[in-house]
Design goal:
Elements lengths: L4 E7 L3 H16 L5 E8 L7 H5 L5 E3 L2 H5 L6 E4 L6 H10 L3 E4 L7 H14 L3 E3 L7 H11 L6 E9 L16 H4 L3 H4 L1 H11 L3 E9 L4 E5 L13 E7 L5 E8 L5 E7 L8 E8 L2 E6 L5 E6 L10 E4 L20 H15 L10 H20 L3 E2 L1
Parallel strand pairs: 1-2, 1-4, 2-3, 4-5, 5-6, 7-12
Antiparallel strand pairs: 7-13, 8-11, 8-17, 9-10, 11-12, 13-14, 14-15, 15-16
The chain binds alpha-L-sorbopyranose.
Alpha-L-sorbopyranose binds next to loops.
């Protein structure tokens, strides 16, 4: 019997638009979701060329009017892949229109906006997911199992460093991710959100922080067209400079609810050589685990209960059967990549449409993350420990 289809409207067609398009296109082919997603309409900025999204990514229609799109009676899911500042108005309008909503992270530029988004989806009683994609890595799911099952014992440390280097060049131009009015915060909200969410997913909620933020390059050249991409822009020189008013790097320490666990976080775009090095380390009384996204299919596990002569970090293949999601892809050891995380994400969201509670991060999780980000920014200015 043919499955019920759900019509998706994606708002935003840059980098996350590409990853989400791939997720919607592949999920029905590689998994068995309860609904078949139809890539109905992709919405871009006025004047944006959406020919690639239509002809290559498979969207049936294009639009430059998100307000009209989110209210279309034939749309079931609104998928928000815009720059952060547009997440709240699009999500609130989509909630009012009774749509199920996926929003990229961070949920919003501020805790206030994020809480308004959560209130809107709760009032509308619609399904809502926030795109913390790294939760959907088989290795991260395996690490969740190690922590939850007590295999690592009592957790002493959670340590995360999410390091990139795409704006180390002073000639890299101004883009939306470097302006507070568009992005809220810099590395903190963009990649710091991911490691904050991973801590809260794997170990526990951050309840108190102390922090420091730094902007290394304070002015950048303005070019005529900001593609919004992290690979820069092909825009023409304007001869103007503009001020970077967000952090290039954030470091913070967190205490975890109900524990003596110490969590340390580093989110930086100034680590030359680290392209998308999202790394976590967890150290417990019975064992430890290490993972990084640039080698995402394996994690290293140390078991204190191994015989002394056999102790050491062992590389575990997270692409072996028995791990989350891998059975739908390839035989053991035939690895997967960054793009597969979005297929897993869309699969869980489609499954969640029928379930009371989905197996994915919601706007509730995203607001909890945003509370930490806000406390980190406050602690950086008060130079004190701040409660979340
Ligand atoms: C830029 O830092 C970025 O595209 C993030 O916004 C994504 O969330 C991350 O997955 C990759 O890097």
């Amino acid at each position: 019997m043919a499955k019920k289809t759900v019509n998706v409207a994606m708002i935003g067609a840059q980098f996350m638009g590409k990853t989400h398009s791939n997720g919607w296109r592949q999920v029905g082919a590689m998994f068995d979701p309860p609904f078949t997603p139809v890539l109905k309409v992709v919405c871009g900025a006025p004047g944006e060329d959406l020919s690639v999204a239509k002809e290559k990514w498979g969207w049936e229609e294009t639009s430059d009017n998100w307000q009209e799109v989110v209210n279309r009676p034939d749309i079931d899911i609104v998928d928000i892949c815009t720059p952060n500042w547009l997440h709240p108005p699009v999500a609130i309008a989509a909630a009012k229109a009774g749509k199920a909503i996926v929003s990229e992270k961070p949920l919003a530029n501020s805790l206030k906006d994020a809480e308004e988004m959560l209130a809107a989806v709760k009032a509308a009683k619609v399904k809502h997911m926030c795109g913390f994609s790294y939760r959907f890595a088989p290795a991260v799911q395996a690490i969740k199992g190690l922590v939850s099952s007590g295999k690592l014992g009592h957790i002493f440390h959670f340590r995360a460093a999410y390091q990139q280097d795409w704006i180390v060049d002073p000639n890299f131009p101004m883009v939306w991710r470097l302006k507070k009015k568009h992005t809220g915060s810099g590395a903190l909200g963009d990649i710091g959100a991911h490691i904050t969410d991973l801590c809260q997913f794997l170990v526990g909620d951050v309840v108190e922080v102390t922090s420091a933020l730094q902007t290394f390059i304070k002015k950048r050249r303005v070019v005529s067209a900001d593609t919004g991409g992290i690979s820069g822009t092909a825009g023409k020189e304007t001869g103007k400079m503009d001020t970077v008013d967000v952090d290039d790097a954030a470091v913070f320490i967190g205490r975890i609810k109900g524990t003596d666990t110490l969590a340390t976080f580093e989110a930086t775009r100034f680590a030359p050589g680290r392209r998308n090095y999202n790394s976590i380390e967890i150290y417990g009384s019975e064992g430890s685990v290490l993972w990084n996204q640039e080698d995402m299919n394996v994690y290293e596990y140390f078991n204190r209960n191994d015989p002394a002569t056999l102790q050491g970090f062992r590389k575990v293949q997270a692409c072996d059967p028995g791990n989350a999601y891998v059975g739908n892809w390839w035989p053991s050891g035939h690895i997967i990549g960054y793009e597969h995380l979005f297929v897993h994400e869309m699969y869980e969201f489609l499954c969640g449409l029928k379930a009371k509670k989905g197996n994915y991060p919601t706007f509730e999780d995203a607001v909890k993350c945003q509370r930490v980000l806000e406390a980190v920014e406050k602690a950086a200015s008060t130079k004190k420990w701040e409660k979340v």
